[in-house]
Amino acid sequence: MFSRIDGILRERTASSVLIEAGGLCYDVLVPGCVADKFASVEIGHRLHLEIFSYLQIDGNRGTSIYVGFTNRIEREFFEALLTVASIGPKTAVRAFSKPMAEIARFIDDGDHASLQRLPGIGAQKAKDIVAKLQGKVARFGLIQGESEPKKEPPTPDFIAEAIDVLLQLQYRRPEAERMVRQALEHEDGPQTAEALLTQVYRDAARRQSASEAQR
Questions:
Q1: Residue 61, strand partner residues
Q2: Domain count, the chain
Q3: Residue 179 belongs to a domain
């Protein structure tokens, strides 16, 4: 198993790519919204993907399956979907047809109807997703850039960790620090990175709603 691949794009279909690396060709599944991002990459050009791999068991035979993403945060969001008991890798690949931030907002808002419009997600799966992940995916709703996130050294401090996540989501440091500072001003301010990022997301959503109301 491996976590990323950097090679030459040899073939593509609507749901997969064939990448040559180190003399071998790897068939990699790609969710719809991920494939859209590198649709302009021509055959024969280099392609870099973060990889989620799993073993598919069929009877007494096991097959290694690889799923590709343009950055590690997309892969982390995919892995979050897999923590829902009723969601397997194949269902998650199909459902990941819209931008990560959009799906994350559906989950955080408890928007079952929008989740059900994702391929492979029915009423029960939508309920399962919201029950498991609501309030836990806010940071994925903050993504605003399409480029691969910059990697910053990890830190145990929850405030610095929250700022680090915002930097990975393509926010500039002054803006990230301002958003975190405002989130901390709330009464009973958050004491973990996850709670802090959830408050940052809610503050951003509140400002956007207020701005739209004024138009």
A1: 58
A2: 3
A3: yes
Give the separation between CA 81 and CA 139, rounded to whole angstroms. Answer: 14
From residue 105, how far is each of 33, 37, 64, 141 by CA, in Å?
16, 20, 32, 6
Instruction: Give SS3 for 43.
Output: coil
Its domain, for residue 15, covers 4-69
Clarify whether residues 65 and 76 are in a common domain.
Answer: no
Say if residue 42 is in the same domain as residue 80.
no
The whole-number pLDDT of residue 155 equals 34
Q: What's the distance, CA 102 to chain centroid?
A: 10
Q: For 40-70, what is each residue's pLDDT tens digit?
A: 888 999 999 999 999 888 778 888 899 999 9
End-to-end CA distance of the chain: 51
Contact 144, 171 (CB under 8 A): yes
Domain co-membership, 162 together with 182: yes
